[in-house]
Design goal:
The structure is a homodimer of 213-residue chains. The first copy, chain A, has 7 helices and 7 strands; from the N terminus they run ααβαβαββαβαβαβ. Chain A is of the alpha/beta class and 213 residues long. Chain A has a single domain, classed as Rossmann fold (3-Layer(aba) Sandwich), CATH 3.40.50. In chain A, strands 3-2-1-4-5-7-6 form a 7-stranded mixed β-sheet, sandwiched between helices. In chain A, helix 1 packs parallel to helix 4. The termini of chain A are far apart. Chains A and B meet through helix 6 and strand 6 of A and helix 6 and strand 6 of B.
Amino acid sequence: MRLRHKPWAGEKLGQYPQYAIAEPETYKGHWAEVFGNPNPVHIEVGTGKGQFVTEMARANPDVNYIGIELYDSVIITALDRLIEAELPNVKLLNVNAKDLKEYFEKGDVDRVYLNFSDPWPKNRHEKRRLTYKDFLKLYEEIMVDGGEIHFKTDNQGLFEYSLQSFSYYGLLLTFLSLDLHKSDFEGNIMTEYEEKFSAKGQRIYRCEVKYQS
Amino acid sequence: MRLRHKPWAGEKLGQYPQYAIAEPETYKGHWAEVFGNPNPVHIEVGTGKGQFVTEMARANPDVNYIGIELYDSVIITALDRLIEAELPNVKLLNVNAKDLKEYFEKGDVDRVYLNFSDPWPKNRHEKRRLTYKDFLKLYEEIMVDGGEIHFKTDNQGLFEYSLQSFSYYGLLLTFLSLDLHKSDFEGNIMTEYEEKFSAKGQRIYRCEVKYQS
């Protein structure tokens, strides 16, 4: 299985099946079983060290959160947070975002969060950006009709690219802030990265977009 | 007629019929007659003192420009510029933008420029913003199919509002810069206002949107 070559991380993740879902393909179409309730499921693609998804889960007990993270080096920190937080409504998946359809079917997910995603600034890496059209199609294929993407970043180039990508895909721009920390937006939960960069005076860009049927 | 109560401005505008079109309703559907050629027509709604439209006309002799401005106090300066510039491809209309359909019919205009439009920041004044949906409909009704709006402003709130308004209207976001003067965008022609505010380090936001058929 996928963790074969990462013995240390795999071993620790394996010790906490209540937080790190070992065989997520088992729950495709049945995520309510994992959480023990039919609440909406919000996923964060690229959850990093897990501060966002953990604090969102704490603030919103009626929503089920799943943090998706490929890299061992950070997901282990996210796991430590979850062990500490002891929340029933947040889980981790140590998988690649491009394989989301192996774990979720149409309607399984209500919202996708993208926070400070890798900008992949070179044109030849456009397809790796999590707001590239193929990813927008992938999210659509696992979300409910009218599902939403909530996206924030400090990277101006990625934000410019993403707003255009959303427009070309036909997504509706339902919220936009070009300077989140100076706006009247309430209830912002910061990522580790956001805390660090906004403290330096860096602008944070944020938007919400919605799929139209 | 509309200039009755502005004798001084009206008189001066009336002395230069080659630059200030006195009875624009006459040319509805026939703007090629005014310019003596069938080149594309780009209008600037709220042309102010006319620097943008004059310099665009100088830089692009194969495009016909029309600057539309309601206020006497500034259109007189725009007229002085045109007298000085002696360009055949730029005209002024001293009319209200909400009456555009009196002067233009479907297909008369190829592109609309909106530069540093009044932000009308209060919610109750939303309908006055030149990117409000009723104005987007108005521009559509006088433009060719696939017509474009090119918009720039230093006002963050107006830009946020406008990108959402464009999205709800179904316009395609074909260009976006969140910091125009630090971007690699070439050929930017500045307005008087833009020169002043960008010199203070104020960011300029710019986008292009396209009507989809």
